[in-house]
Amino acid sequence: MAKTVRTAYACTSCGHSVPKWVGRCPDCGDWGTMDATGAPARAAAASVSSRRATSARPAVPAQSIGDVDAKQAVARPTGVGEFDRVLGGGLVPGGVALIAGEPGVGKSTLLLDVAHRYAAAGHGRVLVATGEESASQVRIRADRIGAIHPDLMLAAETDLAAVLGHLDDVKPGLLILDSVQTVSTGDVDGVPGGVTQVRAVASAIIGVAKERGITSILVGHVTKDGHIAGPRVLEHLVDTVLHFEGDRHSTLRLLRGVKNRFGPADEVGCFDMTEDGIVGLSDPAGLFLTEDADEPVPGTCVTVTMEGRRALLVEIQALVGGSAKDGTIPRRTVSGLDAARLNMGLAVLDRRGGVRCLDREVYAATVGGMRVTEPAADLALALAVASSVSSAPVSADIVAIGEVGLTGAVRRVSGVPRRLAEAARLGFTHALVPPGCGEGAPKKMTVTEVSSVSEALRMASSRWAARG
Length: 468
Known about the structure:
468 residues, 21 strands, single chain
């Protein structure tokens, strides 16, 4: 009897194997990545691996690391300050960057401005290959933001061979491919945007970019969970991974560096979406604060959050309503904050701080559309809630920094000197910080170390009384 050949299925992204085909990998969660790997394929792979590898003379001999020319990897500024800030100074010749974001956030507009400024700076021609829009649509956007330059070349293509042909003709210094999911090649199977096609297209573009020294920027789609669509190997192949974030109801946009081989990987750039395009915000101070900060109202408190290596002042607002009736669960609503940390903070305030708020409706939000998730904002959130309950406003010259634990203790957070320096630059004269974080504070700022949330409430109450 003929031997039955059993077929297994392995994920092309993570390598996880299952005996039956499934649409989604149980290990990494990617869709459409399960390929059949039968016994004949495993036997062929084993025979190949068992062969002895033969040597070949390299095209370029190895050289001493001291003889390597480092000037070839010097970054070139694009002229967009916030974009260069995240990249670590600018675009590196031969470097490949991947930028991803939700539809409509402004990726194409930002990159069109980068392409125009790069060409205007005299770094060479720029080729924008778009597979999502027609050339006339991109021209309309270019007219709106003033991105017209003779060295800015445009091609509407969805075939990889055609894109490579444009590279041969134009010989650009910068290539922008918008987007990598819309381009396909006939050399491999699969639908455009599939795992196989995305991997093949990205590998071809990266190979040409490294060989010819062409700086390349690939635009990628994101899934509903906010992750970059396609195989994870795509993020390993490129040199830089950027996330472009923003709320449709706000003009604020954040460019966040996730991976960067040529600079810091935790930098953040701030942009403002306007009718004339995207404008960089080199100093976003006061963007997340109420304009009438000199007249505080109950339920507000200012904290300093770290976005990458940048300190940003954010105002947290809280509104405590009436008690829930008929045994119903009180409503908890947040905007720009973590709902779990709000519930935890309310429990700590009720049990450790003597502020009755568990049976009352609580609404908390940030100003300016900023999203704050780090624990350093816990103390400011607690003071804002207590201020709303007591109807006593927090002084306009105070900032609160610290994580609040379940025991009511205020824990230390990182980057306190940088946070205090930014607060002092904007005119704040008093700060509540965790124990051991008062050293290195600005001279014109009074720093008070508080060890518990109850102590912080007493300090704030004394300033409330002094204000009254």
